[in-house]
Amino acid sequence: MILPKIKVLRSHGRQYIPDLTEVTLTDEFRGRPELTATDDMSDVEAAAAMCPTAAITTAPFTLDLGRCLFCGECALRAPRNIRFTNDYRIGSASREALVVRAGDTAVDFRHDCVRTEIPRLFGHALKLRQVSAGGDASNEMELNATGNVNFDFGRYGVEFTASPRHADGVVITGPVTCNMAAALEMCYDAVPDPKIVIACGADACSGGLFAASRAVDRSFFERHRVDLWLPGAPAHPMVFIEGVMNLTGRWRRREAEK
Amino acid sequence: MARYITIDNTSPAVPLAEIPDEHYGAVYDDLADRLAQERYHMAHYFAREEGDRLRFYAILLDDSSRKIMITSFAMGYHDEGPLPSLTALRPAMHPFERDITERYGVRFDAMPWDKPLRLPFDRRDRRASVGNYPFYTIEGDSLHEVNVGPIHAGIIEPGAFRFICNGETVLHLEIALGYQHRGLERQFTAADNRLRQAVLAETAAGDTAAANATAFAEAVEKLAGHTPPEGLVRERAAALELERMAMHIADTGALSMDVGYQLGQVACEALRTMTINTTQAWCGNRFAKGLIRPFGTNKPLTAEKTDMIRRNVAEIVRRYDEVRHDIKSSPTLLARYEQCGVVPRSEMLRIGGVGMAARASGVERDIRTSHPSGIFSRQIAHESIVKRHGDVMARLMMRCREVLQSAGYIDRILASHRPDTSAPRPDYVRPLAPDALAVGLVEAWRGELCHVAVTNAAGRIADYRIKDPSIHNWLALALAVRGEGISDFPICNKSFNLSYCGHDL
Fold first, then answer.
1. What is the span of the domain harbouring residue B470?
2. pLDDT (tens digit, 9 = 90+) per residue, B197-206?
């Protein structure tokens, strides 16, 4: 029957975000933290002691977004020193650039670390194969959401494929469990060269909560270069979209103010 | 008859010394008898090292009296049995006995499905691996096997599915899991950091973060002998029901996609976005991570946020109901959903199915009704939605009805909610009762979640066990596709949407 469908359509209206470069997330969203060093660092020491993934160091004062789960407890414990902004521009081509220092006002994308063939080959279309290797389903759902009716990342030719043979790279979520290590390696091998690797979420970037677990095998990251590191637990769809657009040279994030 | 200590879902933690110490024979006879009755099912059954012994705990739920019955028995740590298998009599026990065998090497006599469960890193038999899982096989010229996974065609967690088909018809499906095993339970005791433990609970299944965090908070609060205040209980319930709405709407969209019903798919995608963005506007995370913490909250609801949630939920439910109406008036959709992937009531009972999948087959398993805690033991008397047919359509309509019901609960909870500026903050250092056992039992969107925390003499968490509802329901999926065309597997699978990481831990 057609009438119920018309009703659904009318209520649905237009859902896509017209301009993805203009997206601002709610103030509540915990994105890029800003650190302020103070004479008395005892609050930071207390926050560092309770951090679930030991992402905070006090001397020098840093917060590693590759480990951070964005639980926000440190900002409550040390409000003078740590504040989470709603800035989702936190991915980087360099793992080191994910370490936020006191006074930083942006995460440096480090375009200089991007292999030159990536913008040339994948600047118009990029097909990716996703592999969950111990992901908790939230990162996976957010990656699915990048292609949904709201974000519609497909408008830029970036999509996920069913087969690694059709892909230009792999997106890894999860800390890489021992039980998935072989399957991940096979999937990577099946992607034709030249190919890229994206580590999505704190688990993939650093092992996250499972960095010291004996059930995890992170040797993949010793053998293969990661082209894009995306923080988050999970990484918000805009973290992924903004990261991939910068990686492929189509957007250019403003440089960090030195 | 075995002796039990009997509590309910609002009781404080039980001292380990008060849990009866039985003999296996008595427990075996008693459980075999009770589990044959519909009113009983097992919330958790696990073993833990206790000095030079291995102590088994059985946490049995009595649905008709709201009681939680706990008993235990011990055997020598190096004594490998065999013990007579309960699974042989009551198939619902299979995941528990397989887990015990896998971790501790205890053998169960006449165990009918003696196979790896999740291949944990600390398994007793190191020869067993994901590479040599003993799949069931059937010989025959007319049969062929189809292997899917561990990596699937979509963006989804890994698991290996082996179909035995006769032409297009599925004779048998076996699901081998373990690929997601992260050693989660062991991480709870790796550091005595309560915040870290709360975050670990959230990530047990990231799509069930609110329910897992609630189960953790309740277990810890019971260990501290603490009853959470009214305002906190309301906010937790609102978060839990928002999570249920978001996931049921997501699954409605997924079921629409798999039958080529694009309108329903995109409408539900947008509605799910709206639901999880509501959660994000409340707590900063679309999956409610960081929202639920023991003893208090960092994100107390303000008057503006309360209004925002009520407004959004009303709009979501209005539009979602239009989708539901469209599904029910589209014969092409009904032709795909109805009488597909049927799990009859008797089978669901036998395998110990829980949650919405069980209710879709006419088995009323719902912690909110049978063992209420939080808001369901105070303000709201929950009435479970139960369907009879046990097919994909029943599971879809179950979701539709539960979304409406949850939206109603959220509105009710928040209508009378007075923002509390003095809402308690989380407490990560409060002392816990030593040598005690606490159970966190929550009806998550998939079904019952059971968290069990055991403390040592110093009051530290010495063992933490999680039971995700999926551990029971994966077998229901395997049964649902029997006799179906293999092309109907995707909609059968999505109609359950079970957790891999919650199963593998």
1. 184-504
2. 999 999 999 9
